[in-house]
Amino acid sequence: MKRTFLIIITVIMSLRVAANAGTISGSVSGVAGESVVYVDTAPGKTFPAPTQHAVVDQRGLLFQPHITVVQMGSTVDFQNSDKVAHNVFWTNIGGNKKLGHNLGTWPQGEKRSFKFDTPGAVPVLCNVHPEMSAYIVVAPTPYFTETDKSGEYKIENVPDGSYKVTAWHEGAKNQSKPVSVSGDTKADFTLSK
Amino acid sequence: MSIPIPREGFCDTGNMFRPHESMMKRFQLESPRPKNANGERHGHSWCVKSLGVIFVLVSSLLGQGGETSKVTVTAVEGESWLNHLHRTFDETSMGKTGRLGPPATTPGEVPAHWQLGLSPGFATQTVALHGRDLYRLNCQGCHEESGLGAPPEINSVIDPVRATSVAIIMERNKKIGMDMSRSAAAELAKQSRTSLLQRLHHGGQDMPPLPYLSEAEVRSLFAYLRQLAGVSGAEREQVAVMESSSHIGEQIVKSTCHVCHGAAGPNPSPQELLEGAIPPLNTLTTRTSLPEFVGKVISGASITMGTPPLSCRGRMPVFGYLSEDEAADVYLYLMLNPPHQ
Asked: Is residue A13 part of a domain?
């Protein structure tokens, strides 16, 4: 009897969550290629930092992937798969120059990690190979996504509520707008350099 | 220890000192004697130069060469670097200069002889080399004169070297809107310098190590790399190092010849040569004379290959950026330091 009751409660709770989780979708225009869209602020909510590390590889004199989006508090492993030494440094996070950091220079087969506790875009460079660049976009919430090449995006499982949603694109000015999520919600952005 | 022989008039007197017949044969001192425009032999000057070579080789053999160099010269050993990488000669740009020797001679055609012209002080005096020379001896065979290499197999040296300049780091980051402090740039530059020097000493997965270079040589080479990479003011950092003949030969052999040639092994047959075999270094001084060798290194020479053996255009690149003295240094080094497995 007790067991049946628990099952019923669980099913009801699941349906309730499903009913209150929506999506934010739309497009980012005005720029070419992939952009990042994320829920910037969710008032009154905190999110535990993910335990799984993101990986940025240095391979073929490129950072791969070029853009990585992580939730604030995530750790990123920078690994060197090339036959030459690479360096990783950034001069700011989200434009804040006090957060510039030099992670060091290391050879093939080694990796160094960094935990990103501050939101914002991190322009990652290699001092040895100036043509190499990458971005870590640190989102304050777990609700984020990267657009496809045409700029279309969809963030799923966003609880109903009011948020500030931000679109980021390499070399363009960020654009933020308030979005009230109720089921499937649309939000389009037009960015400029 | 050295044997005092007069440099001038030796061929005319002819009775003060004669090299052993086997040595005359070994260096083919008669056969390549060149002719001038009138078809006359350059008997006197050529003879003096050749005997000078014999003199230094004999004196070097007896005295084991230089006290002039503080570097311990050791024999080259082991498999070629290409063998080490499991890479064939045809699929690499390593050690290739983009220049080949002359086409094979046609039947009946007499191949041109190399007119050997070594410096009067060849092998008996140390010579002052700058970083530019050390780059030629140790790096140019793969990274080319420009330092750009042959990507993706051979990386450019330019960017890793520019990464050691504080001014360049600050300037290029400013250009992309990523201004940084001098202290932050200095930290990056120091790391890049450490990494680059480690690479010079220890090599990399694809790059052979250069452990035979002294600290002074590495400093001189590094200074030239900065000049090559366009680091402002680097031309004032250039320093010379005094080098012995044997050590010059050692550098060329270990950094360039040994990329393709194994240290020791049986001499391949003409048919094996046709099939791609590369002769080992330990047989070099017995299968070729000094003038032949210098000529082959600097301007190329045909090679006998196949069954039946035919004169063919050799596959070995021409190293026109080496001087005759430096090519002869290779020969001398291999004689004095027999390669081994």
From this structure: no
